[in-house]
Amino acid sequence: METVGTTQAAFLLDISSARVRKLLGQGRIKLAKKIGRVWIIPLFQGMPKITNRRKGPLGTWKKRLRQKPTLIHVNKPQIDRNRKQGTEEPVITIRHGDRQTRCHLVEIKGSCRVIYQPNNPLACGAIVWIEVPPDIQVISQLFNQMSNFC
């Protein structure tokens, strides 16, 4: 049986690692066990299995594997605004389906491809982007100061 840790489980479920740890603490992730300081979470058809509670709202985590690729692009208008206003707002946009995250740094944990399509841009207008398969983890990070870049 394939297993993952809390970070990979959070990516698969599309929730935070803290939420995964809370579910683990409640004993709601099926057959998960802690070995030392590390959680081992088994996958069922590629996904962790979470038991529902009897009371309260239903969980908002993903129930099946991602189908669409993750798209990453640089927001050029934000770069221009940062230059004019002397700000350091994040300029990289990561799109997972209909959700988007803005950040300063992106780490791709696997294969990807760079696409240039000037005649068929993304909805936001980007003509160059990085496409990451849905099963590859993408980690984003925000920086408080530009000194963190160096």
What's the arrangement of secondary structure elements?
Layout: E1 3-4, H1 6-13, H2 17-25, E2 33-35, E3 38-42, E4 70-74, H3 76-85, E5 92-96, E6 99-103, E7 105-108, E8 113-116, E9 128-132, E10 138-141
Antiparallel strand pairs: 1-3, 2-3, 4-5, 4-9, 5-6, 7-10, 8-9
Helix pairs in contact: 1-2
Sheet with the most strands: spatial strand order: 6-5-4-9-8
Number of domains: 2
- Please, how many helices? 3
* General shape: elongated
Task: Label the structural class.
Answer: alpha+beta
Question: How many β strands by DSSP?
Answer: 10
Average of the residue pLDDT scores: 86
Strand percentage: 25-35%
| Helix coverage percent | 10-25%
The H/E string reads EHHEEEHEEEEEE
| N-to-C span | 41 Å
Would you write up a description of this structure?
- This protein folds into 2 domains: 3-42; 70-149, no CATH class.
- The strands form 3 sheets. The chain has a 5-stranded antiparallel beta sheet with strand order 6-5-4-9-8, with no helix packed on it.
- The radius of gyration is 18 Å and the shape is elongated.
- With 150 residues, the chain is of the alpha+beta class.
- The chain has helices at 6-13, 17-25, 76-85, and strands at 3-4, 33-35, 38-42, 70-74, 92-96, 99-103, 105-108, 113-116, 128-132, 138-141.
- 15% of the residues are buried.
